Amino acid sequence: MYKIKKTFHLAYGHRLLNYKGKCENLHGHNGVVEVTLKAASLNHERMVMDFTELGGKVKLWLDENLDHKIILAKADPLAPLLKEQGQLCYLTDENPTAELLAELLFSRFTGELKLPVHKIAFWETPTSMASYKK
Ligand SMILES: [Zn+2]
Fold first, then answer.
1. If you measure from the C-alpha of residue 22 to the centroid of ligand 1, how many angstroms do you get, rounded to a whole number?
2. 35 alpha carbon – ligand 1 mean position (Å)
3. If you measure from the C-alpha of residue 19 to the centroid of ligand 1, how many angstroms do you get, rounded to a whole number?
4. Distance from Cα 73 to the centre of ligand 1, integer Å
């Protein structure tokens, strides 16, 4: 099995509902996303996928959906207020934890982007990471 990994940086804001701790307050992170792809065999260029192609697809998705956005649970009462003020929000079904975001990116990148994702690692801070793979 071949694997390749590419790293992406994004800035986002979020908060967690029904949670006691620092993350109950609206705050920001400089997150890092590691996308690992897998392939049992290489393509005609002897690659799993061209890093430039992978970078373009993932960066575009992150730019359009999460980068410099506020990520909130759909149930968060702040969501309609921020949208009303023209703030760009990305709404999640549950609290936007690093674990949930890793799973969400795995799902979007395999589904919408049709990438052969092996694993997504989502670094919320330089020392705190959650990962998801099937
Ligand atoms: Zn946080």
1. 8
2. 21
3. 11
4. 13
Between the alpha carbon of residue 38 and those of residues 5, 18, 119, 131, the distances in Å are 9, 37, 9, 16
22 to each of 1, 73, 78, 79, 120, how far by Cα in Å?
41, 17, 17, 19, 25
Q: From ligand 1's centre to the CA of 27, what distance in Å? A: 6
Contact 5, 35 (CB under 8 A): yes
Neighbours of ion ligand 1 (CB under 5 A): 23
pLDDT in tens, 80-124: 999 999 999 999 999 999 999 999 999 999 999 999 999 999 999
**Triad 82, 66, 10: Cα angle to 5°:** 120
| Per-domain boundaries in the chain | 2-132
CATH code 3.30.479.10 for 2-132? yes
Q: How far is the CA of 31 from the centre of ligand 1 (A)?
A: 10
Tell me the whole-structure pTM to 2 decimals: 0.94
- 101-111 pLDDT, tens digit each: 999 999 999 99
DSSP type of residue 109: H
